[in-house]
């Protein structure tokens, strides 16, 4: 169908979208309504960890759809238990609660921390978060986020989220008081422009939160599930947080998220937390397939190798074009352009012929790369060739 034949005008406006409609995809490639192909280094915003329409994901959806779609969150189901078991087996956490989005998982973490504060810290409720952080689009998670302008769009904010500076431990220490219940951070700020918390900072934060008996919450919605080259990014610093949230990559494209906690932090009582679709077998069956594939022998080693390969290619390009280098972990990386040409590059890359390239400029002066974790080095080479073509045309 032609673009103007779709009832696009019936959709509520939320952002500027290009005038194409995506129809199907496979692996690193996406196809639109005109038959054009795109090499996808956005992957639904670091969501499709195994690329478009992964066979294991299709299989899990197909099998589970024929068995049981939703018995209600008030009952146990098989995939929910199996996925929880897999996650506790492969992490430092003991308990899992499933949700439908990263924001919802973070809401759960905020509630868990506030309940824990009520129980063990005389009603402490403040959660220290960070400038330029992103934790979701609900009112509480927007308030927790340090995105410029988000404090006023839907004012008044949810109170209790003082902001510190990433990689500056004294800025955190200054904010700790009797009302502090937790510190929450992304081990790699994704939307903020792929800014990793240093290993030293993560270790200092762990020591500081232990010293003051406050919880350390890691929002691994973007950095988790293999993206950083380890199953979870907190592993890179050799520390164990108290609480973690997952989203995006855990479902490789389907709405699935999770809140994980150490046994000592499990404070919910009957009725405190829930949700109609939480832990539904259709999505948790997909999550089980995804985590099984990510933890299969050699897979994460491959992510690290391809991450190193992408890093080397980006550094070479940076040198060649006089850019400012690159940063990131695993297959979440940014090319630092040194000038505000990011959006222009994204636009031109999509319009390339015959095949387009999908990129993201998390900030105007950088490009963010978040390909499928099973992207091939050949596809990375193709992306680099296309990117050079775009840069030549500027
Ligand atoms: C995307 C993201 C979220 C929000 O996830 P949704 O599924 O969009 O609600 C939260 N935290 C981080 C770090 C993210 O990248």
From TrEMBL:
One of its GO terms (cellular component) is cytoplasm. Keywords: Amino-acid biosynthesis, Aminotransferase, Arginine biosynthesis, Cytoplasm, Pyridoxal phosphate, Transferase. One of its GO terms (biological process) is L-arginine biosynthetic process. The keyword Transferase applies. Pyridoxal 5'-phosphate binds at residues 102-103, 134, 219-222, 276. N(2)-acetyl-L-ornithine binds at residue 137. Pathway: Amino-acid biosynthesis; L-arginine biosynthesis; N(2)-acetyl-L-ornithine from L-glutamate: step 4/4; Amine and polyamine biosynthesis; ectoine biosynthesis; L-ectoine from L-aspartate 4-semialdehyde: step 1/3. It comes from the Bacteria. One of its GO terms (molecular function) is N2-acetyl-L-ornithine:2-oxoglutarate 5-aminotransferase activity. The keyword Transferase applies. InterPro entries: AcOrn/SuccOrn_fam, Aminotrans_3, Aminotrans_3_PPA_site, Class-III_PLP-dep_AT, PyrdxlP-dep_Trfase, PyrdxlP-dep_Trfase_major, PyrdxlP-dep_Trfase_small. Its EC number is 2.6.1.11. It is found in: Cytoplasm. The modification N6-(pyridoxal phosphate)lysine is found at residue 248. It catalyses: N(2)-acetyl-L-ornithine + 2-oxoglutarate = N-acetyl-L-glutamate 5-semialdehyde + L-glutamate. Binds 1 pyridoxal phosphate per subunit. Its cofactor is pyridoxal 5'-phosphate. Homodimer. NCBIfam families: PRK01278.1 (NF002325), PRK03715.1 (NF002985). May also have succinyldiaminopimelate aminotransferase activity, thus carrying out the corresponding step in lysine biosynthesis. This is Acetylornithine aminotransferase. It comes from Paraburkholderia humisilvae. The lineage of its organism: Bacteria, Pseudomonadati, Pseudomonadota, Betaproteobacteria, Burkholderiales.
């Amino acid at each position: 169908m032609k673009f103007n034949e779709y009832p696009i005008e019936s959709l509520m406006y939320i952002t500027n979208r290009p005038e194409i409609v995506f129809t199907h995809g496979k692996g690193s490639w996406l196809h639109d309504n005109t038959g054009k192909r795109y090499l996808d280094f956005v992957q639904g915003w670091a969501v499709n960890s195994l690329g478009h329409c992964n066979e294991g994901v299709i299989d899990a959806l197909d099998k589970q759809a024929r068995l049981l779609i939703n018995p209600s969150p008030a009952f146990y189901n098989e995939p929910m238990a199996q996925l929880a078991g897999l996650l506790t087996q492969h992490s430092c956490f003991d308990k899992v609660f499933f949700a439908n989005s990263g924001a919802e998982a973070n809401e759960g973490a905020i509630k868990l921390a506030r309940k824990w504060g009520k129980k063990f810290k005389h009603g402490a409720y403040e959660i220290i978060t960070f400038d330029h952080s992103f934790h979701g689009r609900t009112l509480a998670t927007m308030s927790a986020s340090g995105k410029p302008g988000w404090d006023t769009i839907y004012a008044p904010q949810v109170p209790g989220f003082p902001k510190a500076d990433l990689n500056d431990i004294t800025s955190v220490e200054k904010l700790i008081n009797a009302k502090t219940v937790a510190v929450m951070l992304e081990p790699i700020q994704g939307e903020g422009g792929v800014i990793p918390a240093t290993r030293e900072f993560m270790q200092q934060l762990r020591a500081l939160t232990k010293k003051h008996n406050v919880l350390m919450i890691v929002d691994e919605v973007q950095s988790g599930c293999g993206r950083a080259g380890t199953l979870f990014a907190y592993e890179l610093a050799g520390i164990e947080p108290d609480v973690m949230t997952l989203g995006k990559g855990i479902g490789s494209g389907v709405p699935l998220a999770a809140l994980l906690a150490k046994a000592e932090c499990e404070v919910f009582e009957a009725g405190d937390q829930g949700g109609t679709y939480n832990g539904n077998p259709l999505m948790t069956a997909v999550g089980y397939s995804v985590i099984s594939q990510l933890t299969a022998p050699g897979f994460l080693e491959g992510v690290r190798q391809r991450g190193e390969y992408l890093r080397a290619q980006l550094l070479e390009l940076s040198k060649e074009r006089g850019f400012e280098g690159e940063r990131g972990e695993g297959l979440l990386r940014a090319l630092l352009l040194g000038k505000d040409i990011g959006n222009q590059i994204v636009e031109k890359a999509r319009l390339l012929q015959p095949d387009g390239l999908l990129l993201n400029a998390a900030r105007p002066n950088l490009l963010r790369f978040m390909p499928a974790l099973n992207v091939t080095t050949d596809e990375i080479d193709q992306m680099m060739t296309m990117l050079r073509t775009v840069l030549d045309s500027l």
